[in-house]
Amino acid sequence: MVSDLHSAALIAVRDCMGVKPGEKVLVVTDEPLRKIGYALWRAAKDLGNEVLFVEIFPRKTNGEEPPLEVAELMKMADVVLAPTSKSLTHTDSRRAASARGARVATLPGVTEEIMIRCMNADYHRIAERTFRLCEMLEKTKTVRVTAPRGTDVTLPIEGRRAYASSGLFHQKGESGNLPTGEAYLAPLEGTSNGVVAVDGSMAMIGMVKQPIKIVVRNGYAEEITGGGEAYRLTKLLEPHGREGRTVAEFGIGTNDKAILSGLILEDEKVMGTIHIAFGDNKSMGGTVRVASHLDGLIREPTVWFDDRIIMKDGAFTVSV
User: Fold this and answer.
1) Where does residue 172 rank: exposed (0-12), middle (13-18), buried (19+ CB within 10 A)?
2) Domain boundaries, the chain
């Protein structure tokens, strides 16, 4: 298991991040993910790089900022790897580091099993698939999603940039998750309407036993009903007010190695699924900054880009 983890970490550092000799590498982790952080530190060190290893207290929510000192270190690095129990993706610290040219990979909640399974995917093929979907999204005015367990939602996206989390972050300022594989963007604020029935998994909750039914009106999650998971989602959203209920993201999984595991880092990358998130969307060109970003996974979706069906019952109907 240790050698397999080291091999996966080496793929992440060498192949996905493209770390070059002499580059400054920073690993930011916390106690629950210390072993993953150490594996990435060792992989970068084995490539001959000077690597800083920083451990922070676990954050309370996805999107909560790291300490100021860590944020400053992130801006000084060429490459940042952040295996943490709560996501640093949607933080001003990550955005500032990217703006300064750092290549940043966040690995929120990643496990050894997910690292080993998903880091051995063909990321060049995943990249091709992901960029193709991004091209299609940027030519689309409205996305509609339906699914067997009640989802029927319309998401206007005209003019929004689509982002490719391709797994190959070789250019200055590029960032995304590892393991990865998704095409995503921020729907236009205040415009999405319909029903989102989360029936796969939910960030910070895990696998969903009973679908979480979320009624969306004019870009906000107005009603949340279902079983125990729906109650938990409501409690997670409460501290963040109305902005935490913003329809923040539409994404499509593109990693053919990923499986539903109950951890949203992997689940949202599963090919044949889509996810819709609520909360912060500033990282993807939106206007909402809030210390929360919660993704909900939808299984077996049928997806329209304007009047063209690009996925039916979880299977692509277009060449990607």
Assistant:
1) exposed
2) 2-118, 123-316
Is residue 142 a contact partner of residue 188, using CB atoms and an 8 Å limit? no
| Tokens, residue 234 | 């409501």
- Residue 3 — pLDDT band, cuts 50, 70, 90? confident
- 197 forms beta bridges with 213
Mean pLDDT of all residues belonging to the chain: 96
Listed in order, strand segments (DSSP E) in 70-150 are: 79-82, 103-106, 142-146
Q: Which pTM does this prediction carry?
A: 0.89
**19-53 per-position pLDDT tens digit:** 999 999 999 999 999 999 999 999 999 999 999 99
Q: Which of 305, 318, 275 is nearest to 143 (CA)?
A: 305
Residue 137 confidence (pLDDT) above 60: yes
CATH for the stretch 2-118: 3.40.1830.10
- Collapsing DSSP to helix, strand or coil, 21 comes out as coil
